[in-house]
Queue: 2 jobs
Job 1
Amino acid sequence: MEEKKRTFAFLKPGKKNKQSAIIAELQFAGFTVVREETRVLDIAMLREHYAHHVDKPFFQPMADYLMSGESVLLILSCKDDLDPVQFLRDLIGPTDPKKGQFGQIRYDYGAHHPDIIFMNAIHASGTSAEAEEEIARFFPN
Ligand code: CMP
């Protein structure tokens, strides 16, 4: 089967203009927004998506934060010669925003405090298979 050239991301809750600025940065970098939906995530969805983190001490504060406002769910594609999953991960930087660099989305828009690493502005799929799983989960129709 031909590999799908797309990835999945969601912008975490925060000011609307911050979310718009991040989308503009993604587009400026070369991404096309294939699908976009604004939604407040619920606990069932978060338990499924973060199944590997449910037993970690940061899970509940992370879930409370993610349910506190609207997330923007995105399916993104880019030029054929680029791998959208890797391209996006390079653009956003590491999970912990302060470990990234100026110009990376999580460094520029995420929280630089060790207690709130989960406020890292954006989630992005780790592999192409994960992206397809997450797209099926968040965009079932
Ligand atoms: P995300 O890309 O959404 O996927 C896993 C999430 O778990 C990650 O971003 C962070 O939000 C969160 N996370 C991972 N490690 C930690 C940590 N040590 N402290 C708080 N949150 C974390």
Job 2
Amino acid sequence: QEEWPRPARRRVITIANQKGGVGKTTTAVNLAAALSMHNQRVLVIDLDPQGNASTALSIEHRGDVPSVYQVLIEGMPLAEIVKPVPDMPNLYCAPATINLAGAEIELVSMVARESRLLKAINEFKEIELDYIFIDCPPSLGLLTVNAMVAAAEVLIPIQCEYYALEGLSQLLQNVELVRAHLNPKLSVSTALLTMYDGRTRLAAQVAEDVRAHFGDTVLRTVIPRSVRVSEAPSYGQSVITYDPGSSGAMAYADAAREIAFRGASVTG
Ligand code: ADP
Ligand code: MG
């Protein structure tokens, strides 16, 4: 197995796009799984009240499980909620529960409301980590702002369909606002084309438009639409373990490899 470089400093990558269903969670889970299988120590922080990333990683997230909600609202240490992912030695998950939906409103009146996740991550020393992926909800509210304040990198999954670019300017504007006022280290480091259907002219056109707009930020690897990718979560698995030879698994492994190698020079 090829050695992948360990980042000089822990990389915190926020996966954001205020549109639902573009592949945020799938990307978070599968990049994390692929990196962990190449000896990188990885934490996935589930910041979506739906808890889809927790489900996909087989992490309990019933309403009474201590979750990111307690971390953000009650100041519970991250170490108390982080769980090892079954059968994945280097992979951990901080689960989300449905009460996180209320956190969006509860945060509004709280002290340092935008930087509560950052504080929790900075105080988390119990497990040495190479990567933290934050899986955002489909909105640009305070949960996503917390994720952007806690990270140096934003990864934008872009679904290869007609409205792909719509709404992206709003997302980029939010990244700019957070950079200007809250986190000068933040940048969009990565864009990833997801659910690509090679049979359609439209998908090729969208991919071309995205590359023209985002340039080298876009990973060369494109994630194909694949039934295996959508089946894996119902088995509590990444597609990387569920069907390693499938086109989706191989694409996510290639994307993770690109991130590991190009990021060797990324700092901050
Ligand atoms: P988001 O987190 O942005 O809402 P998801 O990652 O949950 O998006 O993906 C939305 C739906 O599309 C899910 O049902 C997921 O299983 C499915 N999906 C994601 N990526 C692929 C893919 N490459 N091929 C097929 N289905 C996919
Ligand atoms: Mg999601």
